[in-house]
UniProtKB/TrEMBL annotation:
GTP-binding in keyword set: no
Name of the protein in question: nitric oxide dioxygenase
Residues in Globin domain copies: 1-133
Cofactor(s) this protein cannot do without: FAD; heme b
Keywords: 2Fe-2S, Heme, Iron, Iron-sulfur, Metal-binding, NAD, NADP, Oxygen transport, Transport
EC number: 1.14.12.17
Length: 371
């Protein structure tokens, strides 16, 4: 597998700068091979290619970690059940992918690369199919929107209840969500903002400053009574209950969602671990979840919350970007660390934790984009 991993990473450099062409060729070839597959995809394919490539890149980077490789791909296979992907489709997908890679790479492609991708794709497909076969859950859950609250012009907090079948999740995980009423066959990922509960109610925090399809509809169009579809939970930003280390949580914007869920789960059993939450935004009005966090502080002496604003000089609290504030309060070397926010915010916070020599296994993170 080491040689295969080397060849995959080496050959990927031939196409990574031309992803748009790669994804365009892949889908054109795929739908030519099997026109019926087109109905599994959104009417508008904008962004769909990027998601394919992200999955490929993630798979390549987990090749050096056999356990992570297996877990990621089995989860991906389970998740693809929501798209109605069947076992017979994988062979067609493989032919289209290899054809797109050869065409995009051009003269730099060789037989060694070709065989490495054939072998890797066979392993990927087998693990994905095994993950799908072993999953006893439905491909997706129907859920009804219960509440919808706007916070400013671009943030909404909504709750929904899964219907028919209980939806099992762990605090810190995310689900992909579809709005059949507005954007059928378009799925986007959102972290669940509360710990599991007996009512089977899930909370989501959504930000959409622009005209994003799903996030825009969730913020501006969805109302109580509307129906959603939720896919199986994924993600490993979950609590290690066996750990005795204190905990650092860093949230930026709607990255608060999984952090809030983690704190809620800790509230159900924690008595010995100090938990420090840092919550940042540009302006005080963007700290929509601060009051709820402060209520939790009042009920749990082991919890502290530090809020910060980067562009609000009148804010009565810490000023500056949240990674810089976290650095001022460090070091965090002996903590379990959870980080959630924009890609830039997460990268900056990870640099702070690296400078504090926090062991990488003690760091878990999630990134949020504006979709």
């Amino acid at each position: 597998m080491d040689n295969v991993a080397r060849l995959l990473k080496e050959s990927w450099t031939l196409v990574e700068e031309d992803r748009e062409r790669l994804s365009g060729h892949f889908y054109a070839r795929l739908f030519l091979l099997d026109p019926d597959l087109r109905q599994l995809f959104p009417v508008q394919m904008t962004g769909q290619g990027d998601r394919l490539l992200e999955a490929i890149i993630t798979a390549i980077h987990t090749l050096d970690d056999p356990e992570g490789f297996d877990e990621f791909l089995r989860g991906l296979g389970r998740d693809h059940r929501k798209y109605h992907v069947a076992d017979q489709h994988y062979a067609t997908l493989g032919v289209a992918l290899l054809d797109a890679l050869r065409s995009t790479a051009g003269d730099g492609w060789n037989l060694e690369y070709d065989q490495a991708w054939r072998d890797a794709y066979a392993a990927i497909a087998a693990k994905m199919m095994a993950g799908a076969t072993d999953d006893d859950n439905p491909p997706f859950w129907h859920a009804e929107v219960l509440t919808h609250e706007r916070h400013g012009s671009d943030i909404a907090v909504l709750t929904c209840r899964a219907l028919q079948h209980p939806l099992p999740w762990r605090a810190g995980q995310y689900v992909s969500l579809e709005l059949p009423r507005f954007h059928p066959r378009v799925w986007r990922n959102y972290s669940v903002a509360n710990a599991p509960n007996d009512d089977n109610v899930l909370e989501f925090h959504v930000r959409s400053p622009g005209a994003g399809w799903v996030s825009g509809a969730l913020v501006r169009r969805v109302q109580p009574g509307h129906l959603l579809r939720l896919a199986a939970p994924m993600g490993s930003m979950t609590l290690d209950r066996s750990s005795e280390r204190d905990i650092l949580c860093v949230a930026g914007g709607v990255g608060l969602a999984p952090i809030k869920a983690l704190v809620e789960e800790l509230a159900s059993y924690n008595r010995t671990r100090w938990v420090h939450v840092f919550y940042g935004a540009r302006h005080a009005t963007d700290l929509y979840g601060l009051a709820g966090l402060q209520e939790l502080v009042g009920a749990h002496p082991w919890l502290s919350v530090t809020a910060a604003c980067s562009d609000d000089s009148d804010f009565d609290g810490e000023l500056g970007d949240i990674p810089d504030v976290v650095a001022r309060y460090g070091p965090w070397t002996t903590h379990d660390c959870y980080v959630s926010g924009s890609a830039q915010m997460v990268r900056s916070t990870l640099r702070v934790l690296a400078a504090d020599e926090v062991p990488p296994p003690n760091i878990r993170y999630d990134t949020f984009g504006d979709i």
